[in-house]
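Title: [Solved] DNA-directed RNA polymerase 3D structure

Original question kept below for reference.
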Amino acid sequence: VEDGREKDPETIKIGDMPVMIRSKVCTLSGNKLDSYIEKNNGPINATRKEKLQYIGEDPEDSGGYFIISGSERVIVSLEDLAPNKILVEFDEKYDNRVEVAKVFSQTGGYRALTSIEKSSEGIINVSIPSVAGTVPLVILMKALGMEKDNEIHESIFSIIEMDPIIYANLEDSRNPKIFPPNGVITSADAIAYLEKRFAAGQAKEFREK
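Solution (posted by the thread starter after getting help):
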């Protein structure tokens, strides 16, 4: 319908679709092969192998590819994660079930993976780009300037079941037995921890960077 008037249907060619060898619409499959042999006065009562040999095809060819402009082409499946979408899954590590949330952050031509793991004990660690190993989530947030526990709690909290998990991680960050000598309380403490963890022995300027 155009301008309120019905017009005759119009066929427009937008391209050609190649046929996969040995697919249902391929000449070499099933009844299509028999029709082709009959049309070309071939051996109708021959076996399938003989029919394929008659038309110059390899009976052992399993197909599954395309021929475009005389060249073979294969479709290769590629699994990729959607950018900027948080995906949650369960993983098995050291016989323990671990919850993992990951996101491929993408902007312009830059793409990086960030993942968060929650162990069966409720400890939350973060894996960030360009850094080997993981970082406790609370320490990372303190290093980014979020010093107060209530700020960290509010930024993470979404359901009431998370309360004990968040508080357990906050308490761990303050535990001097886990993070000597005095625990990780301030942003400066968190940055110092990261410097020792990932740039031990390097010059101060490099550690801060």
